[in-house]
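lol forgot to send this yesterday, sorry. struct tokens for the thing we talked abt
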């Protein structure tokens, strides 16, 4: 089994927005893996600190988001490009974070957590670590998950490695999950669920609870 401590083909760190070079490279892709790190899980209270992007060639870019920052034009152009599918694990959180912090409305979307819950009904475990372990045969190190991401200018090598690894295996996982969903005649249902995620994210931003319950 492979370990997640291997380094990506390239890891680039940017402040406030994607650099033009990597933006041009990424915008030619049909699939990109995305993740975010924040100070916590409450939108409006806990600010966005880092955005990670990986392509199918294992090129990773980490964007350090500064406190009070409200826009990132290159990132926005990439995330709102309808010709690029953006792959997340638990997209509901990341999409809300990008919307509430940087006014970015992501589309289209593939969520490996939702896909796992619809496709991997033989398992009760749908976290990123478990999904990547089974489908990609990689053991993720999650020790840096609960750490201070707010000191963006002084993120440790361990934090950046953790952040990079959280996106590096999503494209491979997406392919395995997509094949499983097609095989089990659940692909159309999954796609319809992905389309609902931005609405769920918007409800989270406005602190609406379980509005569909009786």
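and heres what i got for the seq, position by position
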């Amino acid at each position: 089994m492979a370990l997640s401590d291997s380094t990506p083909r390239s890891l680039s760190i940017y402040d406030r927005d994607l650099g033009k070079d990597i933006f041009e490279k990424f915008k030619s892709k049909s699939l990109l893996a995305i993740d975010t790190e924040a100070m916590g899980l409450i939108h409006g209270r806990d600010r966005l600190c880092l955005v990670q992007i990986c392509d199918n060639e294992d090129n990773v870019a980490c964007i350090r988001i500064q406190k009070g920052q409200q826009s990132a034009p290159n990132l926005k152009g990439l995330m709102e490009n309808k010709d690029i599918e953006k792959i997340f694990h638990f997209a509901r959180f990341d999409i809300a974070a990008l919307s509430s912090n940087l006014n970015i409305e992501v589309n289209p979307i593939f969520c490996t957590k939702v896909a796992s819950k619809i496709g991997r009904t033989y398992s009760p475990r749908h976290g990123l670590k478990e999904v990547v372990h089974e489908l990609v045969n990689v053991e993720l190190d999650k020790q840096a998950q609960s750490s201070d991401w707010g000191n963006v200018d002084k993120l440790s090598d361990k934090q950046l490695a953790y952040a990079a690894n959280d996106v590096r295996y999503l494209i491979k996982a997406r392919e395995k999950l997509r094949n499983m969903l097609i095989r089990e005649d659940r692909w159309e249902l999954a796609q319809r669920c992905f389309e609902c995620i931005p609405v769920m994210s918007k409800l989270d931003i406005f602190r609406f609870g379980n509005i569909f319950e009786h």
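Strands lie at 2-3, 10-15, 31-38, 48-54, 59-64, 85-88, 109-111, 138-139. anyway ping me if u want another try
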